[in-house]
Structure formats: C-alpha cells, structure tokens
Amino acid sequence: MNLVIIAGGKGTRLGLKEMPKPMVEVGGKPLLEHHINLAKRYAIKNIYILSGHISEVIVDYFGDGRKFGVNITHIIEKSLLGTAGAVKQLENRISGRFMVFYGDVFLDIDLKSFMDFDRENDSMADIIVHPNDHPHDSDLVDVNDENIATAFHSKPHDKNKYYRSLVNAAVYILSQDIFKYIPQNKPSDFGKDIFPLLLQTGEVVRAYKTAEYIKDIGTMERLEEVNRDIASGKVERFSKRHKRSAIFMDRDGTIVKEVDLLHRVEDLELLPFSASAVKKINSSDYLTFLITNQPVVARNLCNMSAIKKIHNKLETLLGREGAYLNDIYFCPHHPDKGYPEENPDFKIDCNCRKPKTGMISKAVEEYNVDIESSWFIGDRTADIQTGNNAGMKTILVRTGQAGKDGKFEVNPDYIFDNVEDAVDFILSKKELAS
Asked: Which member of 108, 126, 193, 250 is catalytic?
C-alpha cells in the first residue's frame, strides 16, 4: 500500500517562520519522520509527500527517502488546494488503494488492524474516528451499527443540536476511484467537501474506531502535551498492540439521573459529578465504556434512533465539560414476551442484556481490553453480577437504585457514594500499584 502525507501546513499558531508545520520537532525528531517510521514499521515504503509552504526544508531533509529505508516522491503544490485538492495531484500517478496521513497530526496506531478493517468490505473510503476532549471545535462524524459513516458535521456546530462525539482523525484509506469526486485545480477538503459528497452520491464511507494515540499539534499547548506523552511512555501504552485496562459504567442512576424507563431526549440529565469523573478517567491510562440495558426499545416506548439521540445528548453534555466515553454499548432487548404493545423484533433472549457479558465481550474484542485489571461501576445488583460474570472487580454506588433492586444476591468489592468517588479510588489504587 502507498502512503500519502499532506504536509502543506504553515504552523502560524506555533510561531514557525522558517520551517513548515510538519517539520516541527516532536520527541526529538521532525513530526514527518515519525510518520515515515510508523509506515515503515508496517512495511509501507512507497511514500508521497505533498508540500507547499517552504517545501525545500522537507525535500532537503528527506530527499528520496533512501537513508530512511523508504522511497519518497515529493509533490509541491503551487497554490493552496486544501487536503483533497492536494491529493488530486496524484491522479494517474498512483494505483490501488492508498493511505493518507495529515502532516500536522501525531499518531501511533496499529496500522495492520486498520488495513485488516479496510479489507473486510468494499468502500470508497475508510476513515479513522475517535472521541476527543474538544468536540466543539472538531469535525464530527455520525456512524451506524455497521461502522458506516452516515453524516459529517463540520465545525462550528449548531449549539441547539446534540452530536455523537466521534472526530475525524485525519487518517484514511482511499480507493483510487475517489479522484473522480475531487475537482481539478480547485481547493477542496475531505471532511467538508469530499466525504459529504460521497454520501450524497451513495458511495460507502466506513469508520474505524480506535482509542489509540492521535493528536493534532495545532497549538503550542498540544505540542507540549504530545512531547510529555512521548516521554512518559503514554503514546506507546495506548497502542492497540498492548492490552489496556478499562472502567465500565452503567448509565441510569450511575452517571445520569434515574428516570424510570427513560426514553425521551429531554429527560436525560447528567448527575453533577459524572463529567468530572469521566474526565479523570480520560486523563488516566484507563479506557471508559458505557454498558447499559435499554429495554424501552423492546417495550416499544421508543425506537433505536431515539436511543441514539439520547446518547448523542449524553456525549454532547460530556464534551462540553471536556470529557468523553471511548464507546457506548447498549442492549435494546428484553426476554419476556406476550405484551400487546411490545416490539417483537427485540423480545428475545439475547447474549448482551446484563448480567450477560455480550456487550463487554464486544468492547474487549474491539479495543483489546485487559479484563482482569478492569472495573465495573453501577448502582444495581445486575451491574455487580455483570462485573462478576466478566471477571472484573466491582463497585456499587449509592446513587440511583443503590443496590436496592435486589435482583441478584451479590456483594460488590467496594461501595462508594457516587461514580466520582469510585473513580478516585480506582485511580489511587493504580497510582499506588505503579
């Protein structure tokens, strides 16, 4: 597979004057060199660098790539063409599917997993998406249960709408056929112009979710953060090559206010300590997942679309506080049948409804979770039983049902007043262990 690196950034916010943004030093070497080393690790050795601003700095440093063990072709744009317009220059010069990096984004991800995902189904484009702590100033993507992108939302966002906190991470695998959708000699952007156009014309854009390390270095603050994370080993630890611990959390009564059979968007309300708790997890090495039974679908109180809108609100509210969930898993089923108002399609004995562990197993598979070092936090005995069934340590919180539902005879490992106290305890144990 060929790699294309879009490297035309100026780095104005970084105060760069004599070098292009992709040549800023990160972890002791230019950002572009990290990209090339990552590609080489996965046997991607044919690389096109698309530059413009002070391009001679890039050309002089990398040359033909021989000293870096790769083959580099330099393409220099004469006028600003945008991300897609720059790639258009490769039409008739590149064959087959190809990967794209943005030169102002630092990343360390398992490219083999991404390429395996790309081979699973046909698409015009496969893109990497992930949550971040500033969705309000990021380009967001809606994704369905089949990992197909259904909408692109460029910033700025409508403050009266709720969005899923999935960000376009600026890493793509594209079909050679994409060139026919990119205008010639006209500026265009993948996120704002080309990907929405693909959806409008019925083409398939698939989304690969990851919790690995991907961060743009657009500001000095973010650049300093990346340098700290490289030095601390955080970047390497976040790679999917390694198992990671996770904190699984229930929804109703644990991080949102308990509402009986919540099925309307307007009824969802974050508990006052929830965003702070999730933000603390985000700052740690733990992944965080929401695991929730939502039988309101089986009861026909609402449909799947309504549940997703409720979760969009939840993600938007967390995002406004600088917090995010790595993923949300919900079970819409209920095993009891025979009620006249029910939705029979969801009245089944599934393997995902808590205390069964189907949702957890899916998270383990998708994110390479280490169950033995993970935790489950919830307000019901079903949550504690779920954690026990999965082989995790468990914490009961005194919010919501506070364990008084009495459905299962279980004893949690610990009990705390709320989810933030529980998270503080987990993180303090982690610090002591390290």
From this structure: 250
Compute the distance between CA of residue 61 and CA of residue 72 in angstroms, rounded to an integer.
11
Q: Rounded to 5 degrees, what are φ and ψ at 106?
A: -90, 135
Alpha-carbon distances of 394 from 397, 401, 404, 414, rounded to whole Å: 10, 16, 16, 7
User: How would you classify the pairing of strands 46-51 and 140-143?
Assistant: unpaired
Q: Which long-range contacts (CB under 8 A, 24 or more apart) does 77-81 make?
A: 77/8, 77/50, 77/51, 77/52, 78/52, 80/8, 80/52, 80/187, 81/185, 81/186, 81/187, 81/188
Q: Walk me through the domains of the chain, giving residue ranges and CATH numbers.
A: 2-227 (3.90.550.10), 243-433 (3.40.50.1000)
pLDDT at 434 over 60: no
CA-closest candidate to residue 248, choices 185, 330, 320: 330
**SS3 state at 408:** coil
User: Which residues lie below 8 Å from residue 340, measured CB to CB, with a gap of 6+?
Assistant: none
Compute the C-alpha angle 316/317/323, nearest 5°: 85
Tokens of 430: 């982690």
pLDDT of residue 172: 98
Contact 157, 140 (CB under 8 A): yes
- Give the tens place of pLDDT for each residue, 231-256: 999 999 999 999 999 999 999 999 99
What's the mean pLDDT when you consider all of the chain? 94
Catalytic: 229?
A: no
pLDDT tier at 8, thresholds 50, 70, 90: confident
Q: pLDDT value at position 339?
A: 75
pLDDT at position 15, please?
55
Choose, from 142, 252, 327, 383, the residue flagged as catalytic.
252
User: H helices within 321-356, ranges in order?
Assistant: none
Which residue type is seen at 244?
R
Instruction: Write the DSSP string, 106-118.
Output: EEE--HHHHHHHH
pLDDT digits (tens, 9 = 90+) for 243-295: 999 999 999 999 999 999 999 999 999 999 999 999 999 999 999 999 999 99
**Catalytic site includes residue 250:** yes
Closest CA to 321 of 280, 379, 375: 280
Q: What is the mean pLDDT of residues 369-388?
A: 98
| pLDDT score for 180 | 97
Residue 34 contacts residue 27 (beta carbons within 8 Å): yes
